[in-house]
User: Fold this.
Amino acid sequence: MIRLGELVMILDLHRQGMSVSAIARQVGLDRKTVRRYIARGLAPPAYQPRPAQPTRLAPFEPYLRERVRAFPALTGQRLLREIREQGYLGGYTAVTDFLREVRPATVSAFERRFETPPGRQAQVDFAYFRTTFTDEPSAPRVVWLFSLVLGHSRMLWGRFVAHQDLDTVLRCHVAAFEALGGVPGEILYDRMKTVVLGEAAEGVIYNAKLLAFASHYGFLPKACRPYRAQTKGKVERPFRYIREDFFLARSFRNLDDLNAQFRHWLDSVANARRHATTGRVVVAHFAEEQPALRALPAGPYTAVLRLERRISRDGMVSLDGNLYSMPDSTRRRSVEVQVLTDEVRIFEDQHLVATHPVLEGRGKRLVARGHRQLRPARRDPATADQIQLHARAGEVVGRRPLAFYAAVGRRLAQRGARR
Assistant:
């Protein structure tokens, strides 16, 4: 390809009378090329695209185009195997490049926002957090955030816990219901193992203890469809908000301090804000939804988990990484522990001997009042050999060491022997 400047130079040298051979030597072109450009003048050169070379895939393109038109979801590997059986010797990349050109574009449908009426639904899920408590700076801790969000008003309740076991899940439910002052009609769960045991032909298999708990409080448990995060987006979206607006760049002494700061943030920030989706202040919106919640049951949930535990030498029983005290009067070394949603009961020979609130977290030690009897104070060694004589009223008797009375006794004995 010759540039415009070279063309102008050729024409200018030609006008000056220079021969074609001399011009060709000066510009470094063939004489025929120089002669052709002189004959053409300043008309721009016309270039044509290079004719397409036949490819190995070309004979099979009509077949691929027809197959994709009839079955748009056929994979490239499947089509490659089919044309290989027909004699195709080319590579896989040529097939996928061609399929991208001829495969019909898929139009993704917009997600449908699912709004629920007041009191109808809540969503529950756990989120993973990692932190280091200032009380234990050398031990990084993993904590889980249990979160419950009302679907209508987006009222948010949560608690950081050390476990995801069923007893913790039920305790968090009870605390959430009491904080909200009612129970939603149904609760949507991710397929957490503490809730969903599996799936059979007749449907989802739920944990029997959760079903008993749901029956007591009057709500319907509902598992979301697998691999459908959009189903429970109302509870999953706030996790990023909580992590960025509350959790990051804060320090916590322990799990109790973490939850105290989180409750304050919920009351003063999260539930006091105007929600981006509803356009309303969350706590004011909840005030309208709250009357639609089901009333709390008259009595607490009393289902128990029975365990057998041995008493340690210092009179403590270990449960979920925490220690609970036993009375000093306990005689047996093995006792029965009954775990309720909010209470630990310990039985000796079927008699209730200790009751404790459930401790959150690990490594805690709870000694109930009255479980440790006061031991008699030790006598001072300096006065251990002294006695106090009791006198009649009005008389004062001094305290003297026992050695004094021993010496008096020996002196009296000597006098008696002399007589």
Q: What stands out?
A: The radius of gyration is 44 Å.
